Each structure stands twice: as C-alpha cells, then as structure tokens.
Amino acid sequence: MRDLIRRSRPAELESIRSGIDQVFTDAFFRNWPLGSQEMFPSVDLYVAESNLVALINLPGAESKDVEVTATVDTLTVTGELKTAAAEGDLIWQERSGGKFYRSFKLPVHIKSDQVDASFKSGVLRIVMPKVDELKSRTVQIKEG
Question: Which residues on neighbouring strands pair with residue 120, listed in sequence order?
Fold first, then answer.
C-alpha cells in the first residue's frame, strides 16, 4: 500500500513531466494528439453480425462534450473531460481532465450515414453498420 504524501507541482516540474509524457506518447501511439494536454480514452472495437461496435471509456464525460465523426473507413472521437473543482487542498491526484482525441482506420467500410452512438454509465457505444459486400451485376445493353 502506498502512503499518501502531500505534494505540490511547481511549473518547472509540470513542464518536465509534460515533456516526458509527450516523448512516450510520440513513441508508443500511432494517432497521437495535437497538444500535450490531450489524452487517449480506451477503446474496444469488435465485429457483431453486420456491425462494427466501438466501446469507449469516458468516465465523467457528458454527451454534449463529445463529438463522433465517421467516414466510410475512419472513426474519430473528440471532446473534453471536465474535472471537478477541488473542495480543499489537493493531497493526491490521479484523475485527469482535458481534451481527448482518438481516430483510426476501420478494418472494413461502414455506412457512415447510419452510425448510431449512445452514452451510458461513462461508456460511449458506437454502432457502425458494415457495407454489404460489393457484388457485381450484369448490365443490360439497350439497342439504339
């Protein structure tokens, strides 16, 4: 068990921490965010019958602060987690807030005009209908 130790973060230490975080972010994440204050929510993506389904953890978020954009082959989720105001002197902090961003190529094409998103218990659920397999058809040639 860790002891709780009161600590403060001078601007210099915060700057060093931010720089180290950015190095690891650049090294380990393909779709890294544009600013050092942005974060990556956890995402599960799975295939269910004729849909792709994404589950994204956004504890404390409100649906009005989240934006989902889908194209035929890409899903992007952006927004902001707002932190509660401190009710006293901060002793320990592990929760973070700020802007978040996730964008990735999907393994199959989807019907972007039929994507559905719902938010419940801190989890964003996005259902993306897959495009039916492209089928060839015989074209009738008309005379004249």
Answer: 123
Q: Which amino acid is at 142?
A: K
Pick the CATH number of 11-83+91-129 from 3.10.450.50, 2.60.40.790, 1.25.40.10, 2.60.40.10: 2.60.40.790
> Are the beta carbons of 101 and 80 closer than 8 angstroms?
no
Contact 91, 2 (CB under 8 A): no
pLDDT tens per residue, range 73-131: 999 999 998 877 778 888 887 777 888 899 989 999 999 999 999 999 999 999 999 99
pTM: 0.65
Question: What residues does each domain of the chain span?
Answer: 11-83+91-129
